[in-house]
Inverse folding.
């Protein structure tokens, strides 16, 4: 069927206009979405750099520079978090450990779990005790065992938050150990060697240890070393695991897996009267 020139021209114009409008719409959509996507990618990059600085830079650096970043990461509390799907979280949740005391070491030790159903959902800053409260829970164990005052994890977490020891999204700054010890009239000594740990435990002191990835944690985790057996095994109070707290451990394993940082006195602090 023949189409007259006028109709053909009109159809051609309509096709051109439709194509132009489609291109215009695409350009407009791109112009709107590009800045939004760019901002989201930038935010994601910044968050990754903050929470995983070592993994980002480790492939580019080595030697002293790598140690420097490891120390920085440890000093500022990174990775002291317990995921809600981690086995420790699943095993400990829904339990109450009220009245649990260990009496098999040189010092009777009051046990607290960060996952205790009474407070695992309590606030630690904008985080929760169950997921980020190993530091306050460890110091609650220490203070309640060595001083005349009973301080449970929620109260220690509130004190830590008010005094600047909470590290948003990452647990606690390492200064919490000496800070809390001093606030409750206890002495603390950092930078312990293996024999220092044994001597401290044998004399009735408790040792707070910051463990690295391995048997006790996938990241960073405060526990309390509460005694040493006649065979030289170490007794612990792990605020994320009553099971590990009822086992005996080789000192060599604990030293090897402790988070390696020379800052803030870590990874071991002896606390006593």
């Amino acid at each position: 069927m023949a189409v007259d020139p006028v109709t053909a021209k009109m159809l051609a114009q309509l096709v051109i206009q439709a194509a132009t409008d489609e291109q215009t719409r695409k350009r407009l959509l791109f112009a709107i979405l590009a800045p939004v996507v760019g901002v989201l990618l930038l935010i994601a990059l910044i968050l990754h750099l903050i929470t995983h600085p070592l993994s980002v830079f480790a492939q580019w650096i080595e030697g002293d520079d790598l140690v420097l970043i490891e120390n920085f990461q440890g000093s500022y509390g990174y990775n002291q978090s317990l995921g809600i799907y981690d086995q420790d979280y699943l095993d400990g949740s829904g339990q109450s450990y009220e009245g649990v005391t260990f009496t098999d070491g040189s010092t009777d030790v009051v046990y607290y779990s960060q996952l205790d159903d009474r407070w695992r959902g309590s606030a630690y800053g904008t985080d929760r005790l169950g997921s980020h409260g190993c530091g306050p829970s460890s110091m609650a164990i220490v203070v309640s065992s060595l001083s005349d005052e009973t301080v449970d994890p929620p109260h220690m977490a509130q004190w830590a938050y008010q005094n600047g020891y909470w590290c948003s999204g990452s647990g606690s700054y390492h200064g919490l150990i000496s800070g809390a010890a001093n606030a409750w009239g206890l002495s603390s000594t950092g930078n312990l060697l293996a024999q220092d740990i044994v001597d401290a435990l044998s004399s009735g002191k408790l040792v707070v240890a910051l463990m690295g990835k391995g048997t006790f944690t996938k990241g960073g985790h405060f526990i309390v070393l509460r005694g040493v057996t006649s065979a030289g095994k170490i007794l612990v109070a792990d605020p994320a695991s009553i099971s590990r707290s009822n086992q005996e451990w080789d000192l060599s394993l604990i030293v090897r897996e402790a988070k390696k940082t020379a800052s803030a006195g870590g990874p071991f602090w002896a606390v006593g009267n």
User: Anything to note?
Assistant: The longest strand covers residues 221-228.
